[in-house]
Structures are given as structure tokens and as C-alpha cells.
Amino acid sequence: MTSSFLLLAGLTVVVALALLLWPLLRQPGGSAINAQAADLRRRLETLKQAHNDGLIDDADLESRRQQLSTQLLELVDQPGALPSRSNAAKVTAVLLALIVPPATLGVYKLIGEPRALSFTADARPSATGPGPSTQPGQDAPDLAAAADKLRERLDADPEDIEGWLLLARTYRELANFAEARDAYKRVLDSRPEDLEVTVEYAESLGLASNPRSLLGEPARLLDQVLSQDPQNQRALWLAGFARTQGGEYQQALDLWEPLLAIMSDPQARDALSGQINIARAQLGMDPLPETSLAAVAAMQGSASVDTSAAGASASGGIDVEISLDPQLAAKAGPADTLFVFAKAESGPPMPLAVQRLSAAALPLKIRLDDSMGMVEGMVLSKFPRIKVEARISRSGNAQAQAGDLQGSSGGLDNPTSGPIQVVIDQEL
Length: 428
Fold this sequence. Notes:
Blueprint (H helix, E strand, L loop, with lengths): L2 H23 L5 H22 L5 H19 L10 H25 L31 H14 L4 H13 L3 H14 L4 H14 L8 H12 L4 H13 L3 H14 L3 H17 L7 H10 L9 H6 L3 E7 L12 E8 L8 E6 L5 E5 L16 E9 L11 E4 L3 E2 L6 E5 L1 E2 L1
Parallel strand pairs: 1-8
Antiparallel strand pairs: 1-4, 2-3, 2-5, 5-6, 5-7, 6-9
């Protein structure tokens, strides 16, 4: 058996023992401690169900389960002045602690399959053995169904704030912005000091509005976050967009240009510099000089700003050049929204990467990479065949609607040998 398996198995036994021993060892009358233990057990079940539904991955489950286990064990050891348990209860607890671990190991050796946890050649199924072949994405979770299940559980247990946050982020990935807004509001009402949740709520509030706008309450919330954390990168990014929507391009630059200097991700810097250049163009200013971009990269420890296809491939990204067919140019307005999606050619329907831009910036070149995935673990670099779609939406809705303009690259090998060309040449 691998050491990681032994660690995981040991942790599971510890959690099981803690749950068994707690009623025996707890101090009588400790109602407050009882309530905390019940809350920890409920949160553990919520995490397990979320993992089963595909909403969180194995690593996230294990990290959070270990945190809950630590908290639970602290409760078991919590000192107090309450009367002690009977000797019979203590003897039972000791017997359980001595019997359960070896009994668990014995049962596993009898009916388990240790080789299934090994990555050595003898543990792998034969290439000619039975069983259907699988392609990437075949086991991808149905996020909408998982969100519905989670919502049903939360309706029965509305005090599960972590569950509401998970639901809010799932709705956000599904582009169900109104439901995401409402779920984020529940979390924020319970955790008003959480700056990241405030930023996410502000974003969903703007995306759920009609027409979509970060002006008003979203901008107020973002400014509130920046007053407490002036270098919150997501808040700076969104607050800059709010300024551009209000025509305050200089104020947007005042937020974005300092942000460019502290961003460490090359792809994110490229995307931000593109938005900065759009704002500078509105003010009649020249684009950022290449020397300025190189200086920012050097401050972050990079030799240069890498825009090559090889650099994109190494970071799980692709370069995409998007243009609009001149015959459709009259049907696209400067206020329209441009969505760019990378998807698996065959597999899950949800995008592996997505960008939301202004159609007024066309033609343009952008980079899609693993950081833009909508579902953790389902990213560009994990799929050998992809396609890229670009859509101009008049309504600002990510879902395709009649009258939208669209183009597709068709199926492509991943990684690509050069920039992907996408021409928007169809009207839906």
C-alpha cells in the first residue's frame, strides 16, 4: 500500500473514532460543544456529497476533511469543569480505540484491493482487458444537476453557509447569474467581513442586471473592498471596468496601470494591457509601449513578455486571432459583447476557457489558458482535441440567441503549432 493511502486511511479511521468516541468522552451537559460537533459532522457530510456530485476535487476534499478532523479532535480534547463520564463509558471508549484500527486493517486485507491504489505497471489494467474505453470528459459531472441536488439540501439546511458559497460559485460557472447573486447574498449576510465574497457578489450583481453593468451598487461594493485592501487584484480589475462603463477612462487607468505592475501572471498581464490600451485609445492616448510591458515583466522576475505559441503551449494556453467578416460588420455595434470559448471537440459541453470582451475591440488577439477554466480540473491542457468559438451578443448573454454573430475554428489538435484563426462569419 502507498504511504498516501495509509495516511488517508489513518485519517479516515481517526475521524470515525472521533465520531464514535465523542458521545462517550464528552462532558455531560456540554450542549454548546454538542452543537459544534454536530455542525462539524454536518459539514463533513456536505463536503462528501459535494465531492460525489463533482463540485470539488479529491485534493480539496482531503484538505477540508483534514481541517474538520483537526477541529473535531480539538473538541474531543477540550478541557472543562463539567462532571466526568462514568467508568463504563471510559472503558468502552478505550476498547473501541484499541479494536477499530486493527479490525479496519484486517477487513481491508481480506476484501480490499491494495494494488488499485498503485501507479506501478502491475496495478494497471491490461490494454487488452475487458471494460469500455474512456475519453477525456466522459466522467465530467453534470453541473446543473449537481447544483440542483445541492440546492435541495440547502433548502432543508439553510444555515450551511459553506454550502451556499459552493452553490453560488457553481451557478456562476453555469452563467446562472441571478441565482448566483442570491446565493452570494446569503453568504455575505453571514460573513460581511469576507472581502473575496464581497467582490464575487459585486460581480454577480452586475452580471445579473439588465442591461449588465457594474455601476451603482457593484461599484460601491468594489470601492469598499479597495478601501480595506487597496491591492485586491480582482477588485481593481472589476472596478476599472465599472469606470469604463461610466465613461471614466482616466479613472479606469488610475486603477489598472498600478494593477499591471503587481500582476505576476503573464497571461493576465497581457489581457489587462489590452484593456488598458482600449481605455487609452478612448482618451486619444498612444498604446502602452512595448518597453513598458517588458519592464513590468522584468519586475516580476520574467525575462520578457512571452507571446509566442510555444510559451502559450507550455502554460496550457493557446493564442487566438479573432476577426469579423466585413459583410457582417454593419450588424455588430460598439456596445455588443464578444464571448470567446474554448471547448473539447467531444466531451463536456461547458467551456474549458472563456473570455468576455468588447466587440468594439475587433479584430484582436487574445490568449486562452488553464486559468480561465470554469470547472476545476477541466482545463485546456487536458484535452487533445479542442475547438474555439467566438460569438458577438447584442444582449450580453453568454447563451446563444437569435441575431447573434458567431464563428468557429472547428476541431483542432491541442497544443497548436500557431495562433488559431476564428472568423465570425455566421448570423444565428
